[in-house]
Amino acid sequence: MGESDNLSSVKHIIVILSGKGGVGKSTVATQLALALRNEGNKVGLLDVDICGPSIPKMLNLQDKEVFQCSDGWVPVFVDKEQTLGVMSIGFLLHSSSDAIVWRGPKKNAMIKQFLRDVYWRQLDYLIIDTPPGTSDEHLSVVENIRQYNPDGAVLVTTPQAVSTGDVRREATFCKKTGIPVIGLVENMSGFVCPHCSECSNVFSKGGGEALAAQLDVPFLGCIPLDPQLTQSLEDGKNFLDLFPESATRTAVQKVTTAILEQVQKKVTE
Ligand SMILES: Nc1ncnc2c1ncn2[C@@H]1O[C@H](COP(=O)(O)OP(=O)(O)OP(=O)(O)O)[C@@H](O)[C@H]1O
Ligand code: SF4
Predict the structure, then answer these.
(1) Which of 18, 96, 192, 252 could form a disulfide with 25 if both were Cys (CB 3.0 to 4.6 A apart)?
(2) Which residue lies with its CA nearest to atom 7 of ligand 2?
(3) Band of the pLDDT at 34, cuts 50, 70, 90?
(4) What's the total number of domains in the chain?
(5) pTM of the predicted protein model
(6) How many Å apart are CA 144 and CA 2, to the nearest integer?
């Protein structure tokens, strides 16, 4: 396969970053992709978390294999209408417990191939989920998408992580590499009771918003820690469709709207 240019038919590229592992980066990427799809967009979700690809399981696609056509790898579609396509290193593993321990150059070549050689066709949004931190893999992602004028990065944090330097490092990484920051999302913000759906703030409130103000980046909103969301992700079920009335769904929707507003602002600037 020669050098492909599949990203040129993607209208908007959004990268999801987090300083620490386990803060819900893949969860935010998945729910954002589903919410954008529900609004009538054609969406692609690219999981470049080479060390721990979790997206196939979250979307109940873990047994799928990917195939190549003359234009590149064909993504796995969540729906038969083909409105949400997914590509993950997880599809190339024989077993979900296979560890991928590739060294730098091989990883970077794989990321480059992932970014260039997936045959997305026309997409409104491509959401790229990355590994935690700021590593060589992130640089590979940035270098390979720069020419396509990405909309920017969504930084994900949790109330416990706001006081650490991780998010600041992410913001500095974006600045240094010239990737605009779309904004900051505070995930696992408060706990939704599975019995009465009341949301309790386990940690003090407002840390994410204050940090966004300090970093001078937009605050995109909070998503609560919701056991029904955890269970849906575990079972590979679509939480947004299963719990249309839930406060967490409303929160995901608000974050999605805030992201779209920022993306739109950039387009009209
Ligand atoms: N808002 C939430 N409500 C309920 N469960 C959540 C929420 N966000 C994340 N989780 C759960 O927390 C766990 C970690 O989430 P996730 O895999 O999205 O984190 P990550 O930051 O992508 O981790 P990694 O370090 O593997 O990249 C998962 O089991 C997920 O289901
Ligand atoms: S939030 Fe309400 S239902 Fe849930 S544990 Fe507390 S009192 Fe009980």
Answers:
(1) 18
(2) 196
(3) very high
(4) 1
(5) 0.93
(6) 16
